[in-house]
Amino acid sequence: MYQHEFIISNNDVDYRFTLKPANLYRLFQDVALKATESVGSDSISLSKRGIDWVITRMDVEISRLPRCNEKITVCTYPGKDMAMLYPRYFFIKDENNNVIVKASSIWALIDAKTRRVVVDKDVINKLPPETSEYELPLPSKIVASEDNIQIETRRIHYSDLDFNCHMNNVRYVELLMDTHDFEFYKTHRPSFISLNYIKEIKENETVTVYSDRNNPETIEVKVDGGTSFLGKVTFVEE
Predict the structure, then answer these.
(1) How far is 139 from 144, CA to CA, in rounded Å?
(2) Domains in the chain and their CATH numbers?
(3) pLDDT tens across 53-69, in order?
(4) Which segments within 126-182 are labelled E, that is strand?
(5) What is the pLDDT of residues 212-226, one digit of tens each?
(6) Helix H segments across the chain?
């Protein structure tokens, strides 16, 4: 199991001095990369071979969000491969060894040029699967709501993209969180976030964001009328 310590920066927090939910996903991306560097299956090494990691689903359970200047330990390990899908698990501990965040995710490998799934199981070196007592069940499919209302429309720009030349995974989470305003977050925080990444979003595409305004709330992001992303968030009052 790979572990990495972080100290939460003031650049990563909101007005409450707690970590912005989207920045959890940056931490997860960072430790996943570091965990796989030793066998050359990290995203940077694979990109040089024309292979990209893409995330398909992720669930995050939040007991509490880390605070500014707090030292946390982010832990990650791979699960057992499922055909052409690769599970990866995460959890975050505070300085008192309390688990404050759990996450599970499913990833796939795609050819950088064709954008098709790589079916060769031996194309990468793999770390042995592990398990832990803090393991969150793997994420399932989100069903789109029939009661959506349009929230906003945005055009995707250069700053939204990552080195795969599509919208970064974290930007999807920011779109999801931005369906509510500052006043809402004065009294609410997410306790569970589910994500389904369905189709890559590219530069100059226009996304339309919809919400059903329930709790749990289903958020749908569409491009040209087709669904590119589905998210589901459970909020709690604080």
Answers:
(1) 15
(2) 2-111 (3.10.129.10), 149-237 (3.10.129.10)
(3) 999 999 999 999 999 99
(4) 149-155
(5) 999 999 999 999 999
(6) 21-36, 43-47, 169-177, 182-185
